[in-house]
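Exercise 7. Predict the joint structure of the components listed below.
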Amino acid sequence: EAGVAQSPRYKIIEKRQSVAFWCNPISGHATLYWYQQILGQGPKLLIQFQNNGVVDDSQLPKDRFSAERLKGVDSTLKIQPAKLEDSAVYLCASSLARKWDEQYFGPGTRLTVT
Amino acid sequence: GDSVTQMEGPVTLSEEAFLTINCTYTATGYPSLFWYVQYPGEGLQLLLKATKADDKGSNKGFEATYRKETTSFHLEKGSVQVSDSAVYFCAALNDYKLSFGAGTTVTVRA
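Solution:
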């Protein structure tokens, strides 16, 4: 069974530029999560989708971050414009519907903002 | 909101040593508790979990017991190997949201 795929694995941009991350969840997983992991901290949930609807985006900085999950499968997380403090690893995870206790994580995208 | 506090690292051990990583949580109600592990260059993987008080989760020689009285979920392994070198995260699940601790880096030397 293929795992959660993410791309790119690494990205370096300058502040005020924009960037997008892509996630392909495990086939059949209705729930998709985006986490932000700043160096030295644990992952923090940014947004959670159930199919293509948003369940929770309370921690998403909506002035610069956006996410979508068209057709309830792949998802894209965008930052525009990026700030230095956005440097982090962005993790995507997926699970079966409402199986929040069985989340499968992708390898993450490491973003460096200079 | 919920929060998880775990022992600061890094922790360096010799092979076959005993490992313990402390974890405590603050939550409303009784969350499910987890330990995740992140090996170098890999994504987070679930190591073990416990869903109610006094439950013991175990996997790959690691154990942790859900202690409601002390709101703790300490991770232990009796004899570590070099391959156990990784970052370990404690987490609590309340409703649908996972809250993670800051992670503890463990290095095991041969």
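Discussion. The interface with chain A takes residues 4, 32, 34, 41-46, 49, 51, 89, 91, 93, 96-103 of chain B (CB under 8 Å).
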